[in-house]
Every structure is written in structure tokens, then in C-alpha cells.
Design goal:
6 helices; alpha+beta; three-stranded antiparallel sheet; twelve-stranded mixed sheet
């Protein structure tokens, strides 16, 4: 028995389509289960396959998406299919949960036409594993205040498909370095002498980069989205709204043109580091005298990547963490470690004092 698909116009005035897939057994909404990789009913446990929707739309250029973004109007109000309540959604929201009946709502208009994603990596890590992963992340941080382990509380967890621009680009140009190496050594009378050889290292640069992910949401901290990577893009799948069921999803609100500036800066830094490490190995007193490398994007794709966002409360402060929904990688800001550093210092001092005392006692006994 095949699951029933529903595409319902929620509000005649606004004509905003809402997507909902029903369980073939009990009629309850289906959600995507990361552990099974399939659609699952939260009520009766029925499991069905994710049906890949064939791509019938042409490839959309990033510049066309930029134009759509600049001319789009907010999408303020939707009616929940299950309970009829009116839900106000931010303009960038593409999937959300009804605050009244907890039904999962997918706003199909946010992911269609010229703003349809080119691909998606589904969630792979189930929410029940997150608490242990986060605790595992910070338990080995020895400079943290000791009470952080006992008093911190894990807040609500949000599984969100974050919009990213995926860039392929070339880096080309040239780089030059001044460097030196020790030469011959010899003695002149009472003096020891050593020659120094000086070099100018000129290199022509040609590099290719693929799948450089830059988040396209202004509402989420860039540093979190940069450090929660990498993703395995061999698991990138054709976009299907069924993967969004049970999660929150955002549409991009930063154009490819804007994100490309961050991408170019990052790839040029990486390229410069790679060229420097390969060119100057074995030399010392190295200085960069010229760098004319440039980045050019060869392809830009719009994709949705899985991230869990959560907060840990400690001493009335909120600490934000992000978990890679594919790999389980945990990143986030931890409390100020000054107290932890003082504790660690006194423990180290006490341990050293105890060891010295024990050594003195052994000498006395001897």
C-alpha cells in the first residue's frame, strides 16, 4: 500500500502550498527517520521507502536564484492541515512544526521552481544519540569548571536543514618567496664561519577545489557552520521534500554572489598555505614577497545539509552547540576557562609539591 501524498493550499488569500505525507495504515503524518533512512509513522510505526521524485525542472543558474531572492516577498501566514491553526512563519522557513498539534509542515513553495535545491544530504544521526555525543565532546576538556559536568542542562534540540552554497572553483596565478639556506661552514683563525645562501622562489599556481560549502543563512552563526564541516558529499541525494518531514528547514537568504565573497577569501587563504608549505619546505627565514593568486567559481549549487542546533544551560547562561547531522561532529563555544585554568594550576602545583616531598622523604630514609 502506497503512502498518500497531500499538497494542500493552506490559505486562499495567499495561495501558499503545504505538503504532508500520510501513513498508509493509520493516516497520521509520516516523518523521515535518520536511523532507518526511511519514512516512519510516529503513531503506528509503519515504515515506507522514500520515493525519489524525478527531476523534471531544468538546472537553475545561481544568478537566477540571486534575482529571485532579491524580488521575493515574505510568506507570513499558513493554515495547519491537521488542526486548522494559523501559523506565522519567517520568510526563510521551509519546514516547521505547528505549535498547537505538533504536526510537521513542509512549505513546498519555498523549495520549488527557481529556488528548488539541487541536492540534499539526509539526517543520519538520530536525535537520541545527541546528548551522549555532546557530553563526550566536553567531558575531556580538563580546563572547564568542574561543576559544568554536573550542573549543565541540555536544552531543546532542533534538527534543521541549513541552506548552503556548494562551490567548485579554480585558483590560478603566481607566488614568490624570499628564502635562505645554510651554506658551507669553516673556521678562520679563532672564528667559526658559515655562509648563507639566499633564494627567490617563484611558483606558477594552478589548483582546483570541489564541494566548498558556505552556509547561505544569515540567521545562523557562520563560525558554527564553518566548523561543523566536513560533509561526505558522495551521499548527496536529489532533493525530495519527504526528507524534510519531522525537521525544520530554511530557504537561503544569502545569495550566491554574497556567499562567493566568503568562499573566495577562504579558498585563497587555503591555496596560499598549500603553496607556501610545498614551496618553502627545507628553507628558513622565509618571507612572501608576492602573491597574485585569484579564485574563479566554475559551478555553484544550492543544497540543504543536516545540522542539529542545541543549547546547554550553565550558571544562567546559554552555550550554543551544533552537531553535524551526518557525521555526529560536535562544535560549540564552552564557558570561560579562567577558573578551570586556576584549578588546573593548583592541582599541578600540589602534585609537584607532593612528588618533591616524597623524593625528600626517600632520601631521608636512605
Amino acid at each position: 500500500m502506497q503512502p498518500e501524498r497531500r499538497k494542500v493550499v493552506s490559505n486562499k488569500a495567499n495561495s501558499k502550498p503545504i505538503y504532508e505525507q500520510k501513513c498508509p495504515q493509520c493516516g497520521a503524518p509520516l516523518v523521515f527517520d535518520p536511523q532507518l533512512g526511511k519514512m516512519k509513522c510516529e503513531w503506528c510505526g509503519c515504515v515506507t521507502e522514500v520515493e525519489q521524485v524525478a527531476k523534471t525542472e531544468p538546472q537553475i543558474e545561481s544568478k537566477e536564484r540571486d534575482f529571485v531572492l532579491e524580488t521575493m516577498e515574505p510568506l507570513p501566514i499558513y493554515n495547519c492541515v491537521s488542526c486548522g491553526a494559523q501559523v506565522i512563519a519567517p520568510a526563510e522557513s521551509g519546514a516547521l512544526t505547528c505549535p498547537y498539534c505538533k504536526n510537521h509542515i513542509v512549505l513546498t513553495e519555498q523549495f520549488s521552481g527557481k529556488i528548488k535545491p539541487d541536492g540534499i544530504i539526509p539526517f543520519k544521526i538520530p536525535p537520541k544519540k545527541l546528548q551522549s555525543s555532546v557530553r563526550e565532546y566536553y567531558k575531556n576538556k580538563k580546563l572547564l569548571p568542574k561543576t559544568f559536568f554536573s550542573k549543565s542542562r541540555l536544552g531543546p534540540v532542533t534538527g534543521i536543514y541549513v541552506p548552503f552554497w556548494l562551490f567548485d572553483c579554480d585558483v590560478s596565478g603566481s607566488a614568490s618567496y624570499n628564502a635562505s639556506k645554510p651554506g658551507k661552514s669553516y673556521t678562520v683563525g679563532d672564528y667559526y664561519c658559515m655562509d648563507t645562501d639566499h633564494y627567490q622562489l617563484d611558483r606558477t599556481v594552478s589548483m582546483q577545489f570541489a564541494n566548498l560549502a558556505v552556509d547561505a543563512s544569515k540567521r545562523i552563526a557562520d563560525d558554527l557552520m564553518d566548523t561543523v564541516q566536513p560533509y561526505d558529499f558522495s551521499e548527496l541525494k536529489p532533493f525530495d521534500v519527504q526528507y524534510l518531514a519531522g525537521f525544520v528547514a530554511d530557504r537561503f537568504d544569502e545569495s550566491a554572489r554574497e556567499s562567493q565573497k566568503r568562499n573566495d577569501a577562504r579558498v585563497l587563504r587555503t591555496g596560499a598555505d598549500v603553496v607556501s608549505s610545498l614551496t618553502t619546505k627545507g628553507y628558513y627565514r622565509v618571507s612572501n614577497c608576492d602573491n597574485s593568486m585569484k579564485a574563479s567559481v566554475t559551478r555553484a549549487r544550492y543544497v540543504l545539509l543536516p545540522v542539529y542546533l542545541l543549547h546547554v544551560e550553565f550558571e544562567k547562561k546559554q552555550y550554543e552547540f551544533a552537531v553535524n547531522g551526518q557525521t555526529g561532529r560536535v562544535v560549540g563555544k564552552l564557558p570561560d576557562t579562567k577558573l578551570g585554568e586556576r584549578i588546573w594550576y593548583w592541582k599541578f602545583f600540589a602534585a609537584g609539591f607532593a612528588a618533591a616531598a616524597a623524593a625528600i622523604a626517600a632520601l631521608v630514609i636512605l
